[in-house]
Design brief:
Layout (H helix, E strand, L loop, with lengths): L11 E4 L5 E11 L4 E8 L9 E4 L5 E3 L2 E4 L1
């Protein structure tokens, strides 16, 4: 599936465990060697705002119309 990067800005991060949204994506983290997106910075009211929180693409179960789905 090909998805535009602009569609992943402010995309919801959904948890299978809670069954709901736990965060939203913010800025992508790009690997300069091959220009691939390796992770996204995420923001949430559930997370400490003083720290930077990262969601690696490899750690997400699925990427769908609803956003990122994680375990």
């Amino acid at each position: 599936m090909i998805i535009l990067g602009s569609n992943l800005q402010n995309a919801p991060v959904m948890s299978l465990q809670t069954g709901g949204e736990i965060a939203r994506t913010d800025a992508p983290l790009v690997d300069p060697a091959d220009l691939s997106i390796k992770a996204y910075e995420v923001k949430s009211h559930l997370l400490d705002e003083k720290r930077i929180h990262i969601l690696r693409i490899a750690d997400s179960r699925e990427l769908s119309d609803m956003g990122f789905i994680i375990d």
